[in-house]
Design brief:
This protein is 4% helix and 43% strand. By secondary structure, it is mostly beta strands. The chain has a single domain, classed as YVTN repeat-like/Quinoprotein amine dehydrogenase (Methylamine Dehydrogenase, Chain H, 7 Propeller), CATH 2.130.10. The strands form nine sheets. Strands 2-34-33-32 form a four-stranded antiparallel β-sheet, with no helix packed on it. It has a four-stranded antiparallel β-sheet with strand order 3-4-5-6, with no helix packed on it. The longest helix has 17 residues. The radius of gyration is 20 Å and the shape is globular. The two termini are 32 Å apart. The relative contact order is 0.14. The N terminus is likely disordered. Its main location: membrane.
Length: 398
Amino acid sequence: MRSVTATAAKATSFARSQSAGKLALKLAAAAAIVTLSGCSWFSSKKDPNPPAPLVEFAQKLRVQTAWSVSVGKAGNFTFTPAYAAGSVFAAANDGTVMRINAQNGQTVWRIRTDTPLTAGVGTDGSTVVVVGEKGKIQAFDASGKPTWNAQAPSEVLSSPAVGEGLVVIRSIDNRVTAYDADNGSQRWMVQRNVPSLTLRNAPGIVVGSQTAFVALPGGRLSALALNNGGPRWEVPVGDPRGTTELERISDVSGVPALGSRDICAVAYQGRIGCFDLLNGNVRWIKEFSSDVGVTLDDSYVYAADVGGVVTEFARDTGAAVWRNDKLKNRMLSSPISAGRAVAVGDYQGYIHFLSREDGSFVARLSSDGSPIQAPPVSAGQSVVFQTKSGTVVSVVTE
């Protein structure tokens, strides 16, 4: 079951006439609606949107598992692997943090933090950062030696962004905080308004060009200057629409996809688009709804919508090159370019490979049978997935 639970933002002041009991009941019902929308095993009734059966096809692409390592279970959180300096970094809810040789899967080091973790690893290869319960930030050097601790304003659900001498973290109270990568001292903090209901899978941050690009609830993509947190530009990827709070959820999902000249993002119940890196001017934008984020390569942008339809867009124009609707309701991860194919994980731990040319199936691998919810990452010549049960798997294509 995908972690898309609507939650009440902790920092928001609710000026409502309902009693506390009625408000709690309302939020519980909202959470149930969002969470259970794709899950049939909690009810004896027939699922109105059953997962599409696996399609049979003739394999056209040679793919193989280069290596796999168990890091530990994700629990109720999403743990995204990271790649830097020739290594894959991964973490688990029980506090395990690993550095893995990306070429052969050998463990470089494995440590255990003193608190359960709530988000994946952020690293630039030199500084390795994880966040634990109640927002405890822990940093390590490249050898796994602890270097500093800090405290986030509240719970953190998305991986830290590390780069250009800073660690940038977004907490669920919608504060974006930057810490010195060397000693953990706070450099700046930006506070944003919090919608009353947001998706549980928190939007992420990417750092580049002296800027932190922050995906935000409420459908905003914000560019903040790394030196002081000042705004460079901000654009709407999704505009809250509808009359109910559930209908008005329009969070930017996943981590924005950063290119050399543009940055692309997608919103739940919103749009997908690419924007000029320097000023935020719209290159193209289209109606789309996704809760898993977007990726790109030199020519295309890839996204899976909330129904499980995978689309490849032309990066320069936004024209849809192809759509694959054979994975509907399989609760997909974000798709990612993998050589001549596009790879995407699903709720049963399958990794599907689609042709970059026309979106047809060209190969399929199985992992450990547990959901692949975390976004995959490119790691040199391979693509790395992390499953809910904690298998970190590197796959290569011919």
